[in-house]
Design brief:
The chain has helices spanning 9-17, 30-41, 91-100, 114-124, 149-156, 183-187, 196-208, 250-261, 273-281; strands at residues 2-3, 23-26, 48-51, 67-73, 101-111, 130-132, 162-168, 171-176, 211-217, 220-230, 233-241, 266-271, 285-289, 296-301. By secondary structure, the protein is α/β, with parallel strands linked by helices. Strand 10 (220-230) and strand 11 form a beta hairpin. The chain starts with a strand and ends in a 7-residue tail after the last strand.
Length: 308
């Protein structure tokens, strides 16, 4: 489904290049609908349905777990603050989108408005049954993507275009306590494979001082992140993920949740070569530090509004 397909260039490409898939196009402006129909008339394509009206009048009527993906490209940013509640992506609609997507289904979003992109990125980063797939926001999510009219207009006017792709997952993320079931088993898979005695000390630390957030696949804890709040900084103590979940971006979910929860603080992690690339992908600045444990790095993510 494409929400707000504008003049229809991207939607026309989708239905033409994917003849065995059925697409739903939503556009409230009739000029855009007419232009789309004109573009596809000669191609004799029939694998699409159109809704030339308000999205909210049909969204709840769609069956749950129906959609393979949702495209929302360059939606109206409603720049005036009093109108920003009209933006197409908000928490309420995101919750409905997740219901309508199949497990593994995607939301592809593009915008040239920095504060809107940041707002949507924060929504996608909150870790409830959705995770961001891409690390480089300057690259389109599809190699066959062709810039739309609004994309080209943004470039001509000197605005940066950014892309997000999020995926529906089973995971939920929340604060946990040191007595959470299976926590010791998850911590066992921290970098360095801590001993039983070390795990015991770690749990005592979180019982007294540190904080923990965990990722759950339904009711099973599959990953956790421990941290301390020290003045204006968040110090990451460890990240642990069960081996069978390491290719499912669980660690990225945890870091993104930390960024959202502490958007006004600097996040600091000490790591080794094994995890260095992971932190760099998440926009941490890493520098080599002296350590009795060999090559170590301090990686720092500074919030834009900390002033540090």
């Amino acid at each position: 489904m494409e929400v707000g397909f504008g003049m229809g260039e991207h939607f026309a490409d989708l239905i033409t290049n994917n003849p065995n898939s059925l697409f739903i196009g939503v556009e409230v402006y009739l000029n855009g609908v007419a232009n789309l129909l004109k573009m596809v008339k000669e191609k004799l394509v029939t694998n699409f349905l159109l809704w030339p009206d308000d999205l909210d009048l049909m969204l709840n009527e769609l069956p749950d777990n129906l959609l393979d993906g949702i495209y929302i490209l360059f939606p109206d940013p409603w720049p005036k603050r009093r109108y920003q509640k009209r933006r197409i992506i908000n928490q309420v609609r995101l919750d409905i989108f997740k219901q309508k997507l199949k497990l593994g289904g995607f939301i592809n979003f593009a915008s040239d408005i920095e504060d809107y992109f940041k707002e949507v990125k924060n929504l996608f980063s909150q870790g409830q049954e959705i995770t961001i797939n891409n690390d480089d926001f300057s690259q389109a999510f599809d190699t066959n993507y062709k810039p739309t009219k609004y994309h080209q207009k943004a470039l001509l006017e000197g605005r940066e275009v950014q892309f997000l792709q999020a995926c529906k997952v089973n995971f939920k993320i929340k604060l946990i306590k040191s007595n959470t079931e299976n926590l010791a088993e998850v911590i066992k898979y921290s970098v360095g494979m801590p001993t039983t005695e070390k795990i015991k000390k770690v749990l005592e630390f979180y019982n007294n001082e540190g904080k923990l957030i965990g990722v759950f696949d339904q009711t099973e804890l599959v990953g956790c992140l421990g941290y301390q709040v020290v003045n204006n900084a968040i110090i990451i103590q460890h990240i642990s993920v069960l081996p069978t979940y390491r290719n499912k971006k669980v660690a990225t979910l945890l870091i993104n949740r930390l960024k959202v929860n502490f958007s006004d603080k600097t996040i600091i992690a000490e790591t080794d070569n094994e995890a260095l690339g992971f932190y760099k992908k998440l926009k941490f600045i890493c520098k080599s530090i002296e350590s009795q444990w060999g090559n170590r790095y301090q990686c720092t993510f500074k919030a834009k509004n900390t002033g540090n």
